[in-house]
Design a protein that fits this description.
A hairpin with a 6-residue loop joins strand 1 and strand 2. With 328 residues, this protein is an alpha/beta fold. The radius of gyration is 20 Å and the shape is globular. Strands 7-1-2-6-3-5-4-8-9 form a nine-stranded mixed beta sheet, with helices on both faces. The site of threonylcarbamoyladenylate (TXA) has 27 residues, from strand 4 and strand 5.
Length: 328
């Protein structure tokens, strides 16, 4: 039996499978099986009214899961699938409440990772529903996993099999665009920017107007390490770190512009991580590096402020939430 065949058999038996995608690893279950979906919430420790994204082998499967699909959805699917874009559409009859959190909408995406696509196609071909419900494979509120080892570290025995597809290329969760009512709304920024969506379809997704967050990714505290975190401007970074050192606090540093500070004759006083100074490269490594710093035994994670620019928006969103939720 190949790993894919094992994964298909587990999904059909109502078990959970760790799945690589191009964004982050997912914790997958048969989206048509409410008992299997319930295991996702138990494994993650996630509140049961938070909706999940259903992953599909192709846009040809959309009508099994969504109804009243607007032309815009087909256009975006054509341009960005397989890829890191999730569309929120009105749900088709028969989509379990367990998946949608009881809402009248459903999140759908065709992931761009070859192993995820192979699994989705094999699952559909073997008579499965063709839909795999999968949130990020982390404990609720924690950092999303970007390697198979992270998934095992987060969830241990709760997941029967983790398919290893290597490190995730994008590294942060998909862009979420809500097409379920009138004009497109950006629920979560990601690798696919609103500007690219506008270029593809002529409409710029807008921020949703206030309201109660429906997506756990939109709760303020999320993607967070256990170690406290703070952001410090580039020009203040070294002074800030010196002050921390003098008051006996050990810092982990996440910098994109300044190399580690060597202090001659003493042990390197900081755990210093350099990330690429461009947003895609930074996003690709961000969660793995946060995870490392969280395990480094430091008292504080200091993040050098990133540029205040549109192409950094998705990274800025994840960092802001990580800082809010850190230390809990
Ligand atoms: O990149 C991704 O999207 C990854 C990979 C595994 O595909 N998945 C992911 O899932 O990030 P999760 O559950 O961690 O985040 C999905 C977000 C949640 O914030 C959820 O509330 C939101 O999508 N969502 C799902 N269905 C929704 C719906 N019907 N309406 C509004 N938000 C929805
Ligand atoms: Mg998540």
């Amino acid at each position: 039996m190949t790993e894919i065949e094992r994964a298909v058999a587990l999904l059909k038996a109502g078990e959970l499978v760790g799945i690589p995608t191009e964004t982050v690893y997912g914790l997958g279950a048969d989206a048509a099986n409410p008992a299997a979906v319930a295991k996702i919430f138990a494994a993650k420790g996630r509140p049961a009214d938070h909706p999940l994204i259903v992953h599909l082998p192709g846009a040809g499967h959309l009508e099994r899961w969504a109804r009243d699909i607007p032309a815009l959805a087909w256009e975006l699917a054509e341009d960005f699938w397989p890829g890191p874009l999730t569309l929120i559409l009105k749900r088709a009859p028969g989509v379990p409440d367990a998946v949608t959190g009881g809402q009248d909408t459903v999140g759908l995406r065709v992931p761009g990772h070859p192993l995820a696509l192979e699994l989705l196609r094999a699952f559909a071909a073997a008579g499965g529903s063709g839909g795999i419900a999968a949130p990020s494979a982390n404990r609720f509120g924690r950092i999303s996993p970007t390697t198979a080892a992270h998934v095992r570290e987060e969830l241990g025995d709760a997941v029967a099999l983790v398919l290893d597809g290597g490190p995730c290329a994008v590294g942060i969760e998909s862009t979420i665009v809500d097409l379920s009512s009138g004009s497109p709304k950006l629920l979560r920024p990601g690798h696919i920017s609103p500007q690219r969506i506008e270029a593809a379809c002529g409409l710029l997704p807008q921020a949703p107007d206030g309201g109660v967050p429906r997506a756990s990714g939109t709760l303020e505290a999320h993607y967070a390490p256990r170690t406290p975190m703070r952001m410090v401007g580039s020009e203040r970074l070294l002074d800030f770190l010196n002050a921390q050192r003098h008051s006996g606090r050990r810092c982990g540093v996440l910098s994109h512009s300044q190399p580690p500070q060597a202090v001659s004759g003493t042990q390197q006083p900081y755990v210093w991580k350099m990330l690429p100074a461009a947003p895609d490269g930074y996003a690709h490594e961000l969660y793995a590096v946060l995870r490392e710093l969280d395990h480094a035994g430091v008292d504080l994670i200091v993040v050098e402020e990133i540029p205040d620019a549109a192409d950094w928006a998705a990274v800025a969103d994840r960092l802001r939430r990580a800082v809010r939720g850190a230390g809990a």
